[in-house]
């Protein structure tokens, strides 16, 4: 795996082969330094069609869906071991292409390995039910089969991790797949494709076509040869995909945007809560679907709590992704930096007060990259667009509440429902609020936590379907009921 200062050049990965890089390439410049770091093919509709055909053939006539769970498990464990072998290089590629700190990218790789090992275990335990209490001579088998060809479309904020929330689970179930990574961060997806070959995944089972969403992604959404489309990305693109995918009633799993709240009650461990609020919003530069972008803090502790949050936020190191000391890296590209800045300005126009940051960082060391200061906006009303809309940057909005009901109402008053966090040491408060929040995940006295066994996903405009855990695996299986009558049965018509 090549990770020195040379430019990485990739082809497309179709039917077990990587094509040579072509003439129509997408150049990826580091968002931190502007240096050209990688080049990927701008795939065409014909490329996407060829990849889908390879996956379809591998599913319909290949061995993969019929391998024993033990064989699939063995191959997935090999993939996990190879990912572990190449962990440092994968983390570096991820940091260079996304702008996130290398330290955090290592965490993404470790989590991806954990997901692969967990999925390997699920391959062993894929089984159905036998019903023997249906009356004499009547037996029912409820079986689980691989769902077919899976299209996987992923965004740029966690290119590796979000792929691995899908791929090992689909492979464990016996599905074949075509992945379309985000156009600016395709490196680790293509590296994983190379590792699947090394691990022994047969040709055609996993294919990758890079390029534009409106070309390659759109084809996957429209293709009638795809059975399941698993999408992670923005709500607006998700809605376009839902419309385009109707052609063959394919099953959809939609992991869309979010606007999580972090609710802090006076009886919380406030030191831990300050730490959680900062990690919740500034992790991955705030480019995180479950980012705790809205702080709801009880009015009795608000001033003191905020002053602790601001002073700790000042200590965070914004810096180069490959610098081991960086806490916060660069935003993904110039347009996104403009969007974040624009939201801060709109927030101010709607009455917000800037407690910290609010602008691009342009010191000599950071001038070549898209670095944005950790930003805290106080006095943000629920009507403020900065409160309602996904900013997807290092921007925390602060709103005070008086009662528990008010906190719940504020948290639920947005169109999204991906995740929320509650800080309280009172079990009654924590659980009552946790149960009343409209989101696929609630963290209590922790945030942006997880384990491969625990599913994630959204409600409302954050989408539907779940990834990870047993239910995430089940999304890649189809239930078939087989009903058997034995012995002499009564005729249907007399
Ligand atoms: P995006 O929606 O712009 O792009 C996501 C993917 O869709 C990319 O690969 C893109 O090329 C592709 N795409 C674009 N247009 C398409 C089309 N017409 N048809 C098919 N595919 C198309 O999202 P992004 O900007 O890359 O990522 C940020 C968004 O992702 C945020 O809204 C964030 O909340 C969301 N996200 C959600 C989760 C989750 O688990 N719910 C996780 C991470 C990110």
Automatic annotation (TrEMBL):
First-tier enzyme category under EC: oxidoreductase
A Pfam family recorded for this sequence: Aldedh
PANTHER family: ALDEHYDE DEHYDROGENASE-RELATED
Protein's recorded name: Putative succinate-semialdehyde dehydrogenase [NADP(+)] 2
Residue ranges annotated for the Aldehyde dehydrogenase domain, each copy included: 24-482
Active-site positions on this chain: 255
Keyword entries, A-Z: Oxidoreductase
Enzymatic reactions: succinate semialdehyde + NADP(+) + H2O = succinate + NADPH + 2 H(+)
GO molecular function per UniProt: succinate-semialdehyde dehydrogenase (NADP+) activity
Family: Belongs to the aldehyde dehydrogenase family.
């Amino acid at each position: 795996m090549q990770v020195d200062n040379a430019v990485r050049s990739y082809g497309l990965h179709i039917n077990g082969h990587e094509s040579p890089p072509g003439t129509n390439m997408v150049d990826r410049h580091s968002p931190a330094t502007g240096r050209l770091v990688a080049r990927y093919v701008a795939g065409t509709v014909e490329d996407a069609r060829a990849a889908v055909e390879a996956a379809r053939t591998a599913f319909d006539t290949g061995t993969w869906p019929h391998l024993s769970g033990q064989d699939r498990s063995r191959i997935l464990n090999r993939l996990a071991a190879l990912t572990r072998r190449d962990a440092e290089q994968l983390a570096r590629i991820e940091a260079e292409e996304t702008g996130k700190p290398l330290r955090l990218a290592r965490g993404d790789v470790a989590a991806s390995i954990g997901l692969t090992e967990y999925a390997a275990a699920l391959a062993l335990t894929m089984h159905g039910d036998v019903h023997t209490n249906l009356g004499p001579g009547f037996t029912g088998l409820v079986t689980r089969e691989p769902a077919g060809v899976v299209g996987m479309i992923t965004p740029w904020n966690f290119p590796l991790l979000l792929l691995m929330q899908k791929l090992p689970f689909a492979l464990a179930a016996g599905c074949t797949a075509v992945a379309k990574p985000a156009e600016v961060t395709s490196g680790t997806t293509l590296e994983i494709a190379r590792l699947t070959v090394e691990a022994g995944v047969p040709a055609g089972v996993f294919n990758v076509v890079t390029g534009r969403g409106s070309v390659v992604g759109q084809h996957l959404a429209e293709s009638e040869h795809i059975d399941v489309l698993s999408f992670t990305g923005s709500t607006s693109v998700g809605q376009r995909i839902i419309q385009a995918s109707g052609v063959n009633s394919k099953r959809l799993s939609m992991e869309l945007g979010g606007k999580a709240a972090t609710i802090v009650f006076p009886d919380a461990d406030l030191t831990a809560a300050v730490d959680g609020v900062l990690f919740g919003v500034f992790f991955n530069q705030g480019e995180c679907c479950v980012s705790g972008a809205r702080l709801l803090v009880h009015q009795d502790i608000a001033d003191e709590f905020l002053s602790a949050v601001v002073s700790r936020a000042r200590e965070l190191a914004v810096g180069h992704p490959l610098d081991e000391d960086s806490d916060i890296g660069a935003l993904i590209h110039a347009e996104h930096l403009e969007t974040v800045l624009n939201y801060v300005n709109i927030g101010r126009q709607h009455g917000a007060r800037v407690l910290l940051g609010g602008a691009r960082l342009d010191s000599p060391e950071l001038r070549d990259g898209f670095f944005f200061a950790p930003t805290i906006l106080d006095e943000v009303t629920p009507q403020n667009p900065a409160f309602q809309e996904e900013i997807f940057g290092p921007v925390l909005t602060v709103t005070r509440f008086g009662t528990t009901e008010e906190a719940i109402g504020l948290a639920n008053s947005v169109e999204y429902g991906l995740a929320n966090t509650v800080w309280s040491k009172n079990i009654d408060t924590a659980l009552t609020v946790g149960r009343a929040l409209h989101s696929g995940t609630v963290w209590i006295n922790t945030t942006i936590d997880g384990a491969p066994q625990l599913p994630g996903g959204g409600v409302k405009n954050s989408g539907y379907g779940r990834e990870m855990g047993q239910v995430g695996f089940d999304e890649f299986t189809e239930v078939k009921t087989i009903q058997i009558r034995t012995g002499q049965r009564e005729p249907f018509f007399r």
